[in-house]
Amino acid sequence: MTREEMEEHLQHLKMDYIRIQGDLEKLEFVGGNAGGALRELEAIEDEISEINRALKKT
């Protein structure tokens, strides 16, 4: 993956993260099960960290 592709993917991940945070807030407000959203946020955080590490190496 090129640096440009990694940066683009990073932007998509950040947008997904913001969207899921909003969904999580709605779930918590109505008393829904937020476990899936939390796991998804953690997975995105991990992927963002990996991409950031890879970008520092290039």
Describe the protein in words:
Helix 1 runs antiparallel to helix 2. This protein has 58 residues and is mostly helical. The chain has one domain. The radius of gyration is 14 Å and the shape is elongated. The protein contains two helices and no strands.
Residues in helix, %: over 70%
Helix and strand pattern: HH
Q: Compute the separation of the termini in Å.
A: 11 Å
Overall outline? elongated
Radius of gyration, in angstroms, nearest whole number: 14 Å
- Counted up, domains total 1
Write down how many β-strands occur, each being a DSSP E stretch of 2 or more residues. 0
Largest sheet: none
Category by helix and strand content: mainly alpha
Tell me the number of helical segments per DSSP (H or I, 4 or more residues long).
2
Residue runs with pLDDT of under 50 for 5 or more positions: none
What fraction strand?
under 5%
What's the pLDDT, averaged over the residues? 95
